[in-house]
Automatic annotation (TrEMBL):
SUPFAM superfamilies named among the record's database cross-references: PLC-like phosphodiesterases (SSF51695)
GO MF annotation list: phosphoric diester hydrolase activity
PROSITE patterns: PIPLC_X_DOMAIN (PS50007)
Lineage: superkingdom: Eukaryota
Protein name: Phosphatidylinositol-specific phospholipase C X domain-containing protein
GO BP terms in the entry: lipid metabolic process
Alphabetized Gene3D superfamilies for the sequence: Phosphatidylinositol (PI) phosphodiesterase (3.20.20.190)
Length: 324
């Protein structure tokens, strides 16, 4: 009990430090004033003849397909990290998804599983069918201590077909328009099965990296995210996508529900982006993910992406003029 009380005091102190940091340094960064008028098709409003996959700041979600996991009010609060379906997240502007699966192709988070991955794939295909210039990074991996789904690579290729962008690191330097009709970077990270080979329609786990820190302490996570980001090469030179997860995770401290724990850091995504630019890391940020995604979070990522191409406020007032 004493250790739990001590931990909660540490949590409060770290929350206060983050709040003080935000008050003293602010949350201004290039593009921080941008509020995009069309989250469903925001990528289509970029100059796709110029921008590459490396240059986008991709808004992502953590444990993306957990909206219906567990039993409501019973087990769900301990495992749910998102309240929207994959399709709803796509409509809200999310473009990177973290999907964990097990042998029977059900989506998992820890010891619980939820619906079939078919629902995820169908949501992605439905969204792509209804849009023409939106791109997605879809990461699928076998959950820890679970077995790989049988011939899962073949399943993904058969389902996503021409939407898949083949594994070729040189394509990261190509303007997005040149990747069409491909619009999905599909990363498959099995536990034991053979990883996708170069030239495959699927990408390996080595093409989407992060440094996940398992902590419920918000300032500790915030600082560690910055420190690991400092160690990354600039976007223009590395052969992989790099993800920062703006999340905190329940620990053995008496609070087991995901929402109140991750909420300790969730509101500081804009502060994190401001700090990356203050520290000269603006050209290293690439994927930013959070739990229980919000419109403001997506706008922050879109804003940095657009600022990289110096789109003005006047452009935003006439959004369909900059459809290329």
């Amino acid at each position: 009990m004493g250790a739990q009380i001590s931990r909660q005091i540490q949590v409060v102190l770290e929350e206060q430090e983050l709040q003080s940091l935000e008050e003293s340094r602010g949350t201004s960064f290039p593009g921080s004033n941008i509020k995009h008028p069309n989250h469903k098709e925001w990528m289509g409003t970029l100059d796709l003849g110029e921008i590459t996959a490396r240059e986008v700041v991709w808004p992502g979600t953590h444990n993306s397909a957990t909206d219906r996991i567990g039993i409501p009010f019973f087990t769900r609060p301990f495992f749910q990290c998102q309240k929207y379906s994959i399709y709803e997240q796509l409509e809200k502007g999310v473009r990177v998804f973290d999907i964990r699966v097990q042998q029977d192709r059900k989506v998992c988070h820890g010891v619980l599983c939820t619906y079939s991955v078919d629902i995820v794939i169908n949501d992605v295909k439905r969204f792509l069918d209804k849009t023409s210039l939106e791109f997605v990074i879809l990461e699928l991996r076998t959950e820890w201590k679970r077995f790989d789904p049988l011939r899962f690579d073949e399943y993904l290729i058969s389902q996503l077909g021409d939407y898949l962008i083949p594994q070729d690191e040189q394509l990261l330097d190509k303007p997005l328009r040149e990747l069409l009709p491909g619009r999905v970077f599909c990363v498959w990270k099995p536990s034991i099965a053979t990883a996708p080979a170069p030239g495959s329609p699927l990408w390996t786990g080595d093409h989407l990296l992060d440094n996940w820190i398992d902590t419920d302490l918000p300032l500790t996570k915030f600082i560690s995210n910055l420190e690991y980001l400092k160690k990354q090469a600039p976007n223009a030179t590395r052969p992989y996508f790099y993800r920062v997860e703006n999340t905190t995770t329940p620990q053995n401290t008496g609070i087991w529900c995901v929402y109140p724990v991750t909420n300790r850091i969730r509101g500081y995504a804009r502060l994190f982006l401001a700090e990356t630019f203050r520290l000269g890391l603006g050209d290293q940020i690439q994927i930013l993910s959070e739990d229980f995604v919000t419109k403001d979070f997506v706008d922050a990522c879109i804003g940095v992406t657009m600022a990289r191409f110096a789109l003005s406020k006047q452009d935003l007032l006439q959004p369909y003029q900059w459809l290329r």
